[in-house]
Every structure is written in C-alpha cells, then in structure tokens.
Specification:
heterodimer; A: about 350 residues; mainly beta; 15-stranded mixed beta sheet; about 10% helix; globular; B: about 900 residues; 22-stranded antiparallel barrel; five-stranded mixed beta sheet; 9 helices
Chain lengths: ~350, ~900
Amino acid sequence: MKWLVIFLLPLLFATCIEPYDFEADVVDQAIVVDAELSDSLYTQEIKISYLNRVGSQQFEGVPNARVLVEDDLGEEFTFEESTPGVYRALFGADRARKYRLNIAIPNGGRITSDFQGVPPPIQIDSVTFDELKESFVNEDGKNRTINVIKAYGVANITNNEQDLYLRFGNIETVFLFAERKTVTFPPPKTCFVYNKDIVPEIGVFEVKANSDDVAVRSLLFTKPVSWEFGTVFSIKADLISMDRPHFDYWKEIELIYSQDGNINNPPPARIRSNLSVENRPPVIGYFGMTSISSDVVFIRKADLNTPIILRCGSLGGPFPWPYPEECNECLFINGATTSRPEYW
Amino acid sequence: MKIYLVLFALLLSLTAWAQKPIDKAINASYTNNTLTEIFYKIQDAHGVKIYFDINEAPTFRVTRNFKNKQIWAIVSDLLNGTRLKSLSYSDNSIVVIDLQKINREEIETLVNKWKTGEMDFPKKDGEEEISKLYGNPGTTKGESRYRLTLLDKSQKEPLVGALVFSDDYKINDVTNEKGICTLNLPNGQHILNMTYTSFQPIKLTLEIYENAEETFEMSSSTYILDEVEIVANNARTKMENTKTGVEVIDMAKVEAIPQVLGESDLIKSLEVLPGVTSAGEISSGFNVRGGKLDASLVLMDDAIIFNPTHVVGFISAFNSDFIKSATLYKGYVEPNFGNRSSAVLDVTSNKGGQKWKAKGGLGTSMMKLLVEGPITSKTSFAASARGSFSDYLLNLVANNEVQNSSANFYDWNIAINHKFSDRTSLSFSSYASDDYFLYNQDFGFEWQNKFASLIARHSWNEKFNSKLSLSTGAYTTNQFTINASDAFSYRNGISYLKGLQSNTYNFDENNYLKAGIEYIDYTLDPEELFANEEQSITRDTSVQRLGSISFSPFISGKLQIIENISIEAGARFTSYAAVGPGPSYEYSEGILVDTAIIGASIFNKGERVSTFSLIEPRVSASYLLNSLWSIKASYNKISQNAQLVSIANTSIPTDLWIFSNQYIRPRVVDQFSFGVFHTGAKDTYSLSVEAFTKSTDNDFVLRDFPNIISNDHLETEVSDAIGRSYGIELFAEKTTGKLTGSIAYTFSKTEFRTTTDRFPVNFGEWTPADIDIPHQVNMIFSYRLTPTFIISGGYTFKSGRPFTVPEGTAIIDGFVVPLYTLRNKRRLPSYKRFDISMTLDLRKSTQGGFRSSFTFGLYNAFGNNNVNNVFFRKSVGGNVRGFQLSIIGAVVPSFSWNFVFD
C-alpha cells in the first residue's frame, strides 16, 4: 500500500499557490473617497486619497479639499483637514435627516453624492473570544500548531420587521505595554498600543424581515497569542447598520477582499460607487450613513491558558536578552501612544 | 565387427543427411503478419506442421526477415515476449503451447484437435474469401460501377468508414455513413480487400463486366486490429467527406493519450484536436472555436449530457470502454443537431454483441468494469460501472485541509439492443452518475447526471430508413458550505424530455435526403437556498425560473453534382418558447434593473411566455481535386436558447442553466469555414488547414457582482453583447508505421463587446473573452517498440487566457482592497505540459481468455507549474498582492491495470 501512496502524493501536493508579481497599470490620478458617517456623536473622518499601486499601503491623501456634508434641511457640516487627505468634524447624524457629500478638490473637480438616509440602529450583543490551537503547514511543509485568539462579534436579532443589513467593523484592539528601563531617567511610562498586527475580517450579513430569532457570531480577526497581548488586551467592535445599497457596496468589498483562489470565488469586478464627479479624475468610493452600537471585551493575562512572556520580562525577574529597545521607549512600537482609550 | 562399424558410420551420415524438416534453415520475410498467418505460411511452404491453440494465438502483427535460419528457431524467435513456448513434437511438427500447459495430456489434446479437424487455420487469418461474377466475361472494355454496402453481420447496421482497397492501393475508398462505397472499376478481374476495426476482413475476388451492387456482412472479430488501420480510415474519411470540421474520434487513440489519473478520457482527448481547448485543468467541459462551455452539445445515444465531467472537471463523465463511436462536429453541424451554437459531440454507446466479453481496470484511485454479451440470439447488452476511491489517500496526507477534503464519484451505463428483424431494431440506453466534492470541511459540491434513451430504427426498404428516438434526462446540483454562520445548501437542476424523428431516403450512396423533427421540453427544478445547519442565519428561499420548449423541424440532403463536387445542405427551423412555471417581470420604461420592476406575471406549467423562431440554413461543399486533395467550405447559422450562467470565476458544476425569454434572446452564431485537406498515398499521413470566422448576436455577459443566486429575473444581471471569433487550424497526422502521431496548431481570437449602456464592460470596447487563447499547439505520438510495448506522449502549449488585474488598491475603513476597473486586460503565463506513458499491452498477445495491459504514466512530466488562475488578496501584513494558483504544479505519476476477458 505504501508504494501506492508514494505514487499519488505528488498529486495531492501538486496544487500550489505562489506569489505573482506584475506591473499594474495605475489609473492616473484616480481618487478614492472613504466616507462612512454614523449616528454617534464623535470626531468622524472622511478620507480622500489617490489610488495606490498594488503592493503599496501608502496613504497618499488629497490635500486642500473642501469637504462638506449637508443635510436635507440645508444644514452644513464642514470637515477640516487634519492631516493630508484626512478631514475631520465632530459629527453625529440625526436619524430623521438625510445627508449628502460635497467635495471640491483643488484641481477643480467636484465630487457629490445623493442624499443618504440613516438606517435604524441594531444593538450589538457582545464581543467575545476563543483561545484555541490552530494548525498550519509552514514553509518547510511541516505541520505546526500555534495558540491563537479568535475574536467574534455577536448579535442576537429578534422580531425584526424590516430587512437588516449589518456588518461588524471599526475594530480596535489595544494592549497595555509598561516600560522597564535600563536607565532610571526619564521614569518608565505606560503605552497603549493600538491595532498592532491585526488583519480584520469583513463580516457583512443580512437578516431578512420577520426572521426567526437569529444569532450571528462573526469572526473579527485571528491573532497568535504573544507578548502583544500585554497584561491587558481590549477588543472593541461596532455593529454597523446600513441601507441596502451601502450593504451591497460592502458585500462587494468583502468578495474582493476575501479572494483566496478557490474555484467558487466570484470573478473580480469593479466595486460600485454612489459618487458622481464633474471634471474628472475618476472617483472610486462611497458615501454612506450608518447607525452603530459598540461593545468592548477585555482579556487579562490571567484569562488566557497560554502563558504570556512579557516583552520586557517580569518585575524582579531577569532582563530578556537582547534587550528590546521598546522597553526603554514604548513609543517605538508601531501603533503605540500614551493616550488611554476612553473605554479603559 | 568392422562391418557393424561401417554400417553405424553410414547410418550416422544418413541421419545427418536426412535432416529433420523442422531443422531446415530457410530464408523468409514476413511483413505485417500475425503469428497465425506466419505459421500458416511456414506450414504451407515447408511441409511442417505447427500445432497451436488458435484461440490463444497472439494477434499482434510483426515484420521480420530471417536469413538461413532453422524453422524451429524462427518459431521460437517469434514467440519471444509471449507466454507461449515452442516444442519439437516430431521431426516435422512443432507444438506451440502456453507455458503453464506444458504437460503430455495438454499437448496430446491439442494435437488431436488438429488431427480431428476440430481446430484448423482460419481462412488466411480469418479473412473471408468471396468470389463474385457480374455480367458477361466477354465484355472487357470500359468501366462498370460497383456499389457495395458493408453491414455488421450481427447488428445489421452499416459499417461507416470501412476501408475498401486493392492490394496496390490503386483502388482505395471508404464506406460512407450508410456503409456504402461506390467504385468505378475497369471491366475485368479485381481483388478487393475490405477491412473494418474489430471485424474479420473480406477478400473479394471480383469479375465485373456490368454495373452491379452487393451487400456484404462482416463478422465481428475478437482480433484487436492495429490502430494504424483505424487512423487511416479516419484520415481518408476526413479528406473525402463533404463536411468541414468533422472529427471522428478514434477510441484507440484516446486510449493511447496519457491522462492525469491513468484513465483514458474522451473529453480530454478532444483537446489534442485543433480548435478545441479548455480554460484549464479544471473545466466542466470543453470549448470549441471560441465557443463558451455551454455552446457544445454533448449527446450520448441522442440523450443530452449537461456536465460531461467528474471530479470538478478532471475526468470525463464517459467510461471510454462503453463508447462505441464518437464524432465531434465543429464546422458544419448537420441540421438534425441544434440548440448549441458551437459544436456537437455525438457519442454512441456500446450495446454488446453475440459474444460475451468483460473489460475492466484498476487505477490508483478508481476502478471500472464492463460486461457485454448476448441475452438471446437477437438481443445483446452491455453494462459498465466506474467508481473512485481516493479518500483513503487524502487521509494519509499530513495536511489538515487535504485530510478534511473528499472527492469521489461513481457512474454506470447500461445498453440493450434488440433486433426484431433485419429491418427493425430497438435499443435502450441509460446512464447515471453521482459526484461529491468537499474541501476542507468548508464548502463543496454534489452533482448528478442521468438519462434514459430509447431508439427505434426501421428500414422500409433498402433506400428508406426511419429513426424514432425518445430520451429523458436530468442534471441536479448542490453547492454547500458547512461550519459557518451562514451555512447553506444551494440546489438547482434541469430536466428534459426529448423526441426526435428522422427519415432518410438514399437515392444512392452519394445522394440522400433527410428530414425530421426534434422536440425538447426543458424544465428547471426550483432553485432552493436553505440553511443546512441549525444555527445558520441563511433564510430558506425557493425560486422557480422559466423553462423552455423547442420545436425544430429540419431537412438536409447531400447532392453530388459531378463526380468530384458534392454539397450537403439543409435548414433547421427552430422555434423556442419560454414557458412556465415561473414568473416574468415587467420593467419601467424597459430598463432592466431590479429597481425598475413594476410588476410580475406568474405563469403555470406549460404556459407560453415568449417565443422566438429562426430559420437556420447550413451548407457545406467539397471539391475533390484528386484522390489525395480536397477543398471544402461551409456556412452555419445556429441558435442556442439554453445557456449557462457561472456564479464563480471559473466553471463549476453548480453553474446555472437558464433559457432565453423576452429579455434574454437566444444566442445566434453565424460561422463560415474553409479548409484544404490532403491524405498521403496509402493514407500514411494526412494534412489539413481550416480557417473559420464566427459572429455572435444576442449574447450576454454578466455585470459586475451579479446577483445570481435565488434571483428569478436574471435579465437584470447581464449586459447585452455581441461576439466575434476567427482562427486558423493546422493539423498534420502520421497514421502508419511504428511511430504514429499528430501535430495541431490553432491560432484564434475570441472577443465580445457589450452593446448597452446599462452595464458596459470596458466602456463598450472589444474585450478578449475568458476563453480567448490565441495560440495552441498539441503534439501526440505513439511509438510501438515491440508488438506489446508502446510509448506514448503528448505536448501541449497554450497562450495564457485573459484575466482581470487590479489597477490599484485603496484603503477603505482600514481594509486594503484591490480595485478593478477593466476586465481581461492581462494574460496568464502560457501553459506548457508534456505527458508520457508506457503501456505493456498483453491484451493482444492472445486471442481469447483473460489478458491484461499495464500502463505507467507521467502527467506533466516536466513538472511545469502552470497557472490556472491569478487572484489578489491581503497578504501577511494586510497588504494586497497577487498570487498564482496552479492546480497541477508537479509531476503526477499514475499506474493502471486494465484487462479484457472473452
């Protein structure tokens, strides 16, 4: 029997995925508008950028644009530029009103949308997590197992009288990182590290009107257990309610984002946009209004079965070798600030 | 004492002088003879007797020259490599016997059979010798026309493509589809050979002095003739017949082409023909001359096969042992075929004969068995079954995703033929298959094919034949995901009832008239989407799409205008109706978007919603320049109302069949083709060049992110389009000798253009179609090292097919998303593959009993990492980059054992 297996093993390993390098044809000066506003009052953002080359995550903002959101009663909300391409305003949508976007970009282009209503909010039930072992085959073809945290958003929906279009989003993770310096001055400080190495999933789902009680548990992200959980790790997520066209936009993004080469992947295609533009350049993006509800879960070191070895060692214990520089300056960590999240 | 010594010495010298006949050294030359023929010749020429079991004699042919070699040594030499052994039985006799039967009892039994006449040589290797005299032998001047018809003796059916030739090949022709061949012969004596695969040849000694006609019946032979003869027939048929683009598939050649799991495969073997291709290793069918997958009609015994593949396209749905004949029409499509706009693959099943036979095989992941034989003297049957057993292998692989996957299938065929009389027969054929594919306990597919077909044939007289065919079939699919919050099953299916009545009147072998009518009633199963796990949020939905009725009378005929010019022409009057059950929607101002729906009408079963009719003229003409060259041209108009809608980026088994309605009109294709054909002297090779151009009207392409599932108004998800294809196909084939093979090159372009502003693709510009493969080269060869050992190989080169790349990426709410604006602007890397196989075929080593063949093959022997698809997604770190997916990126060995028992 063994010889038979040896014969066929190559077939089973025959299917393979390798990187594919190519030079993309960039659409000249195409502009991407990311404008999703919610009914919660906080400093909200509208981002205007140029289309990136494939392989780049560089955010090249479009500066000096005039960004207005106006409602159907004529009230205008001006979004001021905070950094190039990022426009901010303290804003909270009124569910009784409709809003539209109006952008004037420096080269004379004008980007507008139709009026968009604010959908009803749906209450998030919780953000939860599972700690489990996950197997994978490493580059040498060997099986490996690691401990991971899988975070989920949970929504229990009952008695919905209309179709609901939802997604979990605005995922924010924070962990606490305390310096343990090799020098005494300045004194050690504590950093809050935001969204370190998180690759979130897009979890859009639709609940038809008058469905029986529906419990949705949607994967938010998977993260290997490591020092990046610190002594305390928080996961915040929003349950975002949208209207149907906005949902279709996110569904399309999800389909494109989650391509993995499987034969049941849909063909790649142009994502819809509800923005119209005068005086080119071409514009990609969407202006959508949402209602959101949020929840946070805190994971303490003791909550995990996997022992976490702190990056800078334990109090009173030996220093790790070589000594990580972030233990002297925690702001060296990507995503670190000294600002405590308001929900901490 | 001295005198005794002298006498002894004299005796010794006499003994030496009186050499035994079997020790006689001879010079002999044997060309393409079977051992039986050689034994007969030796016996005839040298007065020795060779006793052997005529039923166990090897049937392979050999070409050998012997110089000054003893007879016993020649016999021994010829038996090398077989399981037979020669023994000296007496001074002038040799026994040839199976190694396992070398004992006195067996030898005596064998010798006695010969001595009592129970066993004897067939007439010159089974060749039937017939003499005929027509007319008065005194008339020696001038020519006479001799019309001969060749029939299968047991089935009384015409033998199509049988070779009729004189020994010097000056007379050389093949029988037409009626089994008829007409020769203009100088008055006098002729010797004609008539041969046909698996039938005993006939040697006709003919004296002809007036026009005459005769029908000959050939008996089925257990002899498996050399492939060379079959190929030669096909080459000449292809050159001489009137139609362009008709390929008679040589099943012996199908067996010789190396395949992925060692299983000979009809569908994959089509791809070595020019103009036939597929999108990749996994494809639920084949594409012909730029046609989509759904544009090829696949028939088996007149029944429609909707998905001719297993294992997501890796293996053909046909058990090659069960196929009697297969013909691909890619140019001129006879008017009795329709409703698919590109090609027709017409497969006829094996229905058994008057001799019991079993065939089977065991490979590394599948097995098969076929049994055929007589039920009564007038009734025969054939039944076959295949199944896979690959899951045990998946479980042995140290990869969770593979261990959690499953792929298996089975299929079975049964066919029965009954002859009521020499003029009337009835045949029944049925097929069913079931496939299951699961990937990583995540998602999967199931699909089932089934059909039943009943065909009655009646010959009213020698010229007028009728056929009535009734068939029904269904194709059902299920796509599912499991272990997910939205775990679902998505089921759909299509079924049909088909009737075909056709009548043919043969004025003579070159002129006929055919007329008939075809009726097909298609019904789509309700398309159901439902939660298959308790906690799934998928809401159950059921959608009924409209079915279709088609009614198509047709007429066609062949006319030989003068000796070298013939025309086949006809027309099909196609009438389609979209029928209930199902809804039909109305749109505000005729704008086909779902937000413009202003009403719907629900139609009951059979209620007519819309109709479409079209006259489809078809014509093909050929001009025989001489006995070696011909030129042909054809024009076809074909419509298609059954179309496939793919819900993924490649064809998958659960793609939807839909029918045209008042919004989606039937696709209409016009094709012109022209070709030059050449067959070498003695049919040793053939060459052809064919050019074609096609235009497609009423086509559609899917819009971006179409909403297909559970949508009963798909007209809102498509964009109207037109298409065009053109190409040139070169084909060269060597058909005789130890080395046979072919080279095919195809250049073609296939493009589409959207014609509405609703969902314009690429701004309404001409865009390469998904199946646009400009260059394709296929080479196959088969080299017979010994009579039983064959090496075969094949090389394929294809330009990469078009695919869509992102123009850039955008960061949207933190997600780095690739953005696409233009379709099919890039091409995958070109596809290259070399396959090789070695076959030890002992099935020809004896004439009866249990014989085996063993095949070892390497698919993709150079391990080319051919790209099947390119996709773009987040990589480690969340960045977007391209990845290429290879389905078979390594050498795939295979081993199979096949047997025949009769």
